[in-house]
């Protein structure tokens, strides 16, 4: 469950069946901090609100109970009419609004419905909410992309180590010697991409957890993935390590110049 801050108000969000929901109970606190449920109920008494909710359900919910909806709409707006999220869901089988119990309890609405409610509470608040929600989704997509590229890098790393095992490790070798060879080849990639070894990076960043690749950008991970594949081929071809390092560094600079801005060309080639 993610949260966004809108004008000093914490708004909870959740993902249900692949659909984004926003807590309208939290939004209602902008209008009435002590009784936000009453704000939601008052909004749902409005005929225009129910017309919108009914249309949304008709378009998105094949199980929407239109037979029950018609008399509700006729009654809406009268002095005696009341409506709550619980009653709305029970009568119509609505899916655009859900009630959540427990620690993170409250009434949540599909994001379009939540934006509609926010505009009823405050047009200004709605604009800030939309902006913050978009920022949240962009950040989520960025993290998903980074994670996918990191996993791809791990897969290619296994291909890389397999090439080392079959072409660089002698038939008889100690575990310590084997680890040193693997580490040396990993540092060939680190030097080609980042200009530093794993140990040098750790010494320069003692407060950071993980390794240098955990802090790489998506573009750097793409480039690293390509270089691991190429280094596997170079190893199989018997190219010496010093020559592979120069080739890989040149490839890294070329690929990063394509993936990023021309200022990357300031990197100097290894000779």
Summarize the structure in words.
- By secondary structure, this protein is of the alpha+beta class.
- The chain folds into two domains: 119 residues, no CATH class; 125 residues, no CATH class.
- The protein has eleven helices and five strands.
- The protein has a five-stranded antiparallel β-sheet with strand order 1-2-3-5-4.
- A hairpin with a 2-residue loop joins strand 2 and strand 3.
- It is elongated, with a radius of gyration of 29 Å.
- The two termini are 51 Å apart.
Number of helices: 11
Q: Largest sheet, described in full?
A: 5 strands, antiparallel
Q: Helix- and strand-based class?
A: alpha+beta
What is the domain total for the residues?
2
Name the average pLDDT.
Answer: 84
Quantity of strands, as a count: 5
Spans where pLDDT lies below 50 across 5 or more residues: none
**Relative helix content:** 55-70%
Task: State the order of secondary-structure elements, H for helix, E for strand.
Answer: EEEHHHHHEEHHHHHH
- Percent strand equals 5-15%
* Coarse shape: elongated
Rg is: 29 Å
User: What's the N-to-C terminus distance?
Assistant: 51 Å
Arrangement of strands in the largest sheet: 1-2-3-5-4
Could you name the key traits of this structure?
11 helices, alpha+beta, 271 residues, five-stranded antiparallel β-sheet, elongated
Secondary-structure map:
Blueprint: E1 3-6, E2 9-16, E3 19-23, H1 24-28, H2 36-45, H3 47-60, H4 66-75, H5 85-92, E4 97-100, E5 106-110, H6 111-121, H7 123-167, H8 175-194, H9 198-204, H10 218-236, H11 241-259
Antiparallel strand pairs: 1-2, 2-3, 3-5, 4-5
Helix pairs in contact: 3-4, 6-7, 7-10, 8-11, 10-11
